[in-house]
Structures are given as C-alpha cells and as structure tokens.
Amino acid sequence: MFLGNFQHNIDKKGRVFIPSKFREGLGEEFIISQDISGKRCLCVYSMPEWEKFVEKLDNLPNTKSSAVKRFLFANAFNVEFDAQGRILVPANLREYARLEEKADILGVNNKVEIWNTALWAEENENTTPESIADIMAELDF
C-alpha cells in the first residue's frame, strides 16, 4: 500500500526522485501512464497492479474499452529507477501532466500519482474535512 505525499524537483532532463518507500513497492520495473479519471496527473503502477488493471479493462465489452485502451496504452511506458532513485518521465507525459519544476508524489493505495504541485493544490481547494465526512457517510462510517 502506498501512503504519503512528497514534493520533489523535476530536473531539466525530466527526471524526478521517487521516495524509497515507494520504490520498494514498485519493484525494479513498473509502468507510468496518464490518469484515466480525467485528472492531469500521472499514475505509476507496479507490474502486478498494472496486470490487475489491464485484466479489469479486458472484462469490459470491446465497444466500451477500445477507446480507453488506446488512450491508456499509447501513453504508457515501462520505467526503471536510475542509481539515484529517479525516473525519467517521458516528454509527452510531462506535457500532459504539466510537470515543470516541482512535483507532488502521492501514495494512493495501490498506485503512485505524480502531480504538478500547483494542480495538486487546486485539486485540494474544495476538499475539506466536511466534504470527506459526507462521502464517508455513504459507507456508514
């Protein structure tokens, strides 16, 4: 399980440091892709989580899944860490997520998300303890 929020710089070559606790969970080889929930962030999946995700897509009717698959797979890349624990984020993904100087690296249960710091702040503007309580009430918490 991935937990926490870390902020790191993105260097001129497009590399970003991934915290060690996340590196352990991702393994040696993993996948980075665009988010498919309509957010301008990137998702990083361990290979086992990626395979589970793809299996779920494969269970959808082709008429529903084909556009998602094209969007997702055309913009997904196998990635590895360098000796300093950084990953090179492909240029098209940096552009999609508007990654420039700083990034927020979030643990989100079974995946890691990489956000432009300003976009992450905007995303959270309307998230309040009360709004979270309203959502959780639906689960009888």
Structure notes:
With 141 residues, this protein is an alpha+beta fold. The chain is built from 6 helices and 8 strands. It has helices at residues 20-26, 47-58, 62-73, 91-97, 117-124, 129-137, and strands at residues 5-9, 15-17, 29-34, 42-46, 76-80, 86-88, 102-108, 111-116. The strands form 2 sheets. The protein has a 6-stranded antiparallel beta sheet with strand order 1-7-8-4-3-5. It has a two-stranded antiparallel sheet with strand order 2-6. A hairpin with a 7-residue loop joins strand 3 and strand 4 (42-46). It starts with a strand and ends with a helix.
What low-confidence regions span 5 or more consecutive residues with pLDDT below 50? Answer: none
Q: What is the CA–CA distance across the termini?
A: 21 Å
Largest sheet: 6 strands, antiparallel
Helical segment tally? 6
Task: Determine the oligomeric state from the structure.
Answer: single chain
- Strand segment tally: 8
Helix content: 25-40%
Keywords for this structure?
about 30% strand, 6-stranded antiparallel beta sheet, alpha+beta, two-stranded antiparallel ribbon, about 140 residues, 8 strands
